[in-house]
Design a protein that fits this description.
It contains ten helices and four strands. The chain has one domain. The longest helix is centred in the N-terminal third of the chain and has 32 residues. By secondary structure, it is mostly helical. The protein has a two-stranded parallel sheet with strand order 1-2. A two-stranded antiparallel ribbon has the order 3-4.
Length: about 300
């Protein structure tokens, strides 16, 4: 029992340190490359870090238990001998793990946008109306549980070389951070070209945070395209910053309703500024003006 507890504690620390190192590194890069992008977001960032550290424990405990079981009892299908499976299985296993994770994430994410689950859990993540590099693991504990079961399920079901597993974890971490940080690290030719039509980047996921009713995927746009929930990209300026839209996000699964409020213990992000419509001429019908986008500041 002591070994299991130590393994769970050690894995929790590893997940937390990995989050702080990767998110902190990209936050530092953001401050250097895009000064002022996170200006006035200090309270939001502190909230994102707090929720993310709670999520680190929820992710770390089951992973630590399975790590102990793998080392002591051979519970999982993770292997170390590269010749145990054919070499062609190495890349196939990575793609299969990512595809299964993406499928699980898409459908649980859509479920979290239903009224009840959104109220109780997912509103924590969407309190970051304009997310930062620190928001990748900013989840309510109930939502974190839906993500924490993925890697344990994969290593129990799929033969994965330890190197393949490390690559899957690295992709999961990097894409989780870079898709939330508010600017593109990839060239525009990738984002707006063939690669970007199938892979999710910051411009794609930022539209989810501004619209709520679309772009639910994690790694790939396949499920969004198949299910008609892909709304494309938020435009990026010449520096790669995703542009902020002055539109009120709408919750999904119940059109024409405003987004449900965040739980009472989670301070909501300040809403985007509204622009009052100009008075229409007396002879013309009153219409609501089109409000232009602005950069994410």
């Amino acid at each position: 029992m002591a070994g299991i507890l130590l393994s769970a504690l050690a894995m929790t620390l590893i997940v937390a340190l990995r989050y702080l190192a990767v998110s902190g590194g990209f936050a530092w890069a953001t401050a250097r490359l895009h000064p002022g992008l996170y200006a006035r977001l200090g309270p939001q960032i502190r909230r994102e870090i707090g929720w993310s550290l709670v999520s680190a424990a929820i992710y770390g405990v089951p992973a630590g238990i399975l790590a102990w079981g793998w080392a002591q009892r051979g519970w999982t299908r993770v292997y170390t001998d590269p010749h145990q499976w054919s070499l062609w299985w190495w890349p196939v296993s990575v793609l299969l793990a990512l595809a299964l994770h993406d499928t699980w994430f898409y459908w649980t994410h859509r479920w979290l946008h239903r009224r009840g689950p959104f109220h109780r859990a997912h509103a924590v993540h969407h309190a970051s109306r304009h997310p930062t590099a620190w928001a990748a693991m900013s989840f309510h504990p109930w939502e974190a549980l839906t993500g924490a079961v993925v890697i344990p399920a994969l290593v129990l079901a799929i033969p994965l070389h330890v190197g393949s597993l490390g690559l899957v974890l690295a992709i999961m971490t990097l894409m989780g951070v870079t898709n939330h940080m508010g600017w593109e690290i990839f060239p525009r030719s990738w984002v707006e070209g063939r690669v970007g039509r199938w892979l999710i980047t910051a411009s794609h996921h930022h539209r989810h945070h501004s619209d709520y009713r679309c772009n639910y995927g994690l790694y790939f746009r396949v499920w969004d395209r198949l299910c008609g929930t892909d709304r494309g990209l938020v435009p990026a300026d010449a520096t790669g910053r995703t542009q902020r839209q002055r539109t009120s996000p709408l919750s999904t699964e119940w059109p024409s309703s405003p987004p449900p409020p965040a739980p009472s213990n989670v301070p909501s992000s300040p809403p985007p500024p509204r622009i009052a419509p100009k008075a229409a001429p007396a002879t013309a019908p009153t219409t609501r003006p089109v409000v232009p986008s602005e950069r994410l500041q």
